[in-house]
Amino acid sequence: MKKLFVIALVLIAVPAFAQQTLNYSWEDGGTILGFYGSNLCCDTNVSGPQTGSQGSTLPDYTCPGAVDGTYYLHVAEDPHTGTPQAFLCWVVGLQEGDIVDAMFYGFDTSPGASPSQRIWGSYTETGGDINSYSGSAGGNDAYTAGEGWDLVTHSWTFWADGGLHDGLVIQSRLYSTPSTNDPDHTDFWIDDITVTAPAHATIIFPEPVSPVEESSWTNIKALYR
Ligand SMILES: [Ca+2]
What we know:
The chain is about 10% helix and about 45% strand. The protein has 3 helices and 15 strands. The relative contact order is 0.26. Calcium ion (CA) binds near residues 26, 66, 68, 69 and 71.
């Protein structure tokens, strides 16, 4: 009887699949993996206090600095139209029923009102790139709380749709007020994302962009004049 009890305990203690947990805090100069919405702009890696705008206001909205380490992410919605998404992580090689947990910090100083952020997910096609959208994966209906750096979290149970998709893009959805107005501009800040996924999956975070990739064609042409 005692042996049976021990075996039962071991079975409970061992997870069905090995898990991995990775963190990205923008300390290497990276920005975003991609975005949805033509009005997402100005993605930059920043440090120290940053002042931005909330809609039509003059810059009056100050983020004091990173919540973790020295560097963090800045993005903006300009003009206000729809809900742009900043792609912060891409998990690929997922299988039906896999659990993916993620959390990040978004900066918000307006309780119960925009600007605010939400953590959300979308599927990508098997074998496709990060822009091969294959449907929304849902997210957390809660917005950043409006108390400075606020943690948003979500847990997804992966739906493979018969093998049509094997990737999950984890994004920040950006909410501004008013939701539609041109030429309004709203700044957002993000830091410290942590993602847990099965060991058979691959967790991809932003990477620093090399100076060559940053150069516009104009700059490249100028080099050969
Ligand atoms: Ca950081």
